[in-house]
């Protein structure tokens, strides 16, 4: 009856190797925490099949490669923490599909490209941390759409261009 597990927490251990794709067969999984281990390899693209996930906590490992586009299929996801890994590539555009996402931490990786405009579609977002990556370009045009936003950190990147007046007015008011 492994398929009925809803929480899977093996954080702060000495796990090594890759995240097995079979983990994504746990149909009732709502909370996945494998933070603070020695995991390597890629985040399985099958992660998008676990429609019940509300939290993915994979911080402080050595995971690498692209963040899979399939992450955008997780409509109930509220927390995504991939901090302190070796992820590369762009932040997936599908991040904007995560309508319930409140906390997004992709800091301390090797992500490049721009912050996707689709981020502004995740209107329940409260905390965003993109710090210490290799991001460039300008801030998304519609950041003011994130009405619940309390913290936005994109420090230690190569972001350029203006900050929109609309966003500043939203922050100040």
From TrEMBL:
Coiled coil regions, renumbered to chain: none
Domain annotation Disease resistance R13L4/SHOC-2-like LRR: ranges: 21-108
Annotated compartments: Membrane
Gene Ontology terms: cellular component: membrane
Topology of this chain in the membrane: Single-pass membrane protein
Gene3D superfamilies the UniProt entry points to: Ribonuclease Inhibitor
SUPFAM superfamilies: L domain-like
InterPro entries registered for this protein in UniProt: Leu-rich_rpt, LRR_dom_sf, LRR_R13L4/SHOC2-like, Plant_RL_S/T_kinase
Keywords for the protein's UniProt record, in alphabetical order: Glycoprotein, Leucine-rich repeat, Repeat, Signal
Stored PANTHER family: LEUCINE RICH REPEAT FAMILY PROTEIN, EXPRESSED (PTHR48053)
Protein name as catalogued: Disease resistance R13L4/SHOC-2-like LRR domain-containing protein
The species this protein was found in: Physocladia obscura
């Amino acid at each position: 009856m492994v398929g009925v597990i809803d929480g899977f927490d093996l954080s702060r251990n000495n796990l090594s190797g890759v995240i097995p794709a079979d983990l994504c067969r746990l149909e009732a999984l709502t909370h996945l925490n494998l933070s603070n281990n020695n995991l390597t390899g890629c985040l399985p693209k099958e992660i998008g099949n676990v429609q019940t996930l509300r939290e993915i906590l994979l911080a402080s490992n050595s995971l690498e490669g692209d963040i899979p586009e399939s992450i955008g299929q997780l409509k109930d996801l509220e927390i995504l923490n991939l901090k302190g890994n070796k992820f590369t590539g762009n932040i997936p555009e599908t991040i904007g599909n995560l309508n319930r996402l409140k906390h997004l931490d992709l800091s301390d990786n090797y992500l490049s490209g721009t912050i996707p405009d689709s981020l502004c579609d995740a209107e329940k977002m409260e905390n965003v941390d993109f710090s210490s990556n290799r991001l460039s370009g300008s801030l998304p045009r519609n950041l003011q759409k994130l009405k619940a936003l309390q913290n936005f950190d994109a420090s230690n990147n190569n972001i350029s261009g203006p900050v929109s007046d609309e966003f500043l007015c939203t922050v100040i008011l």
